[in-house]
Write a structure and sequence with these properties.
With about 120 residues, this protein is mainly alpha-helical. The chain has a domain at about 5-60 and about 95-115. Helix content is about 70%, strand content about 0%. The protein has helices spanning about 5-25, 30-55, 70-75, 85-90, 95-105.
Length: about 120
Amino acid sequence: MFTGWIIFYFMVGAFASIFLAMLLDWRNMYRASNVILVFGLIAGIYCVAAGIFLAIGWQDPFANANISSEELAPAYVRGRGRGGLVILAIKYWPYVLIGYGAFFIYHSPVRRRDFWE
């Protein structure tokens, strides 16, 4: 039900829906903008649901790894300091996904009343 590719598509869709809705808003296409925002809302809800589903059976991928801090330190430094964020995102992936979805649920409300009239 929650495969990696579907989660990826919904994450990209939630991210792109905000910018596409702003573009349509700028062109005074309010109904289309609200339809895109509803899709972003659905994508955010899907990300939260997938994160909760993954968190139920989540095991730390680094728990059984025999990696010392001396071996892990270069991975943190790679990517001009962003390597540590990538490793943390992998370690806490379901919670990152829940936060990502909640962020887009909060920031994609249907703003216009004319959509519902």
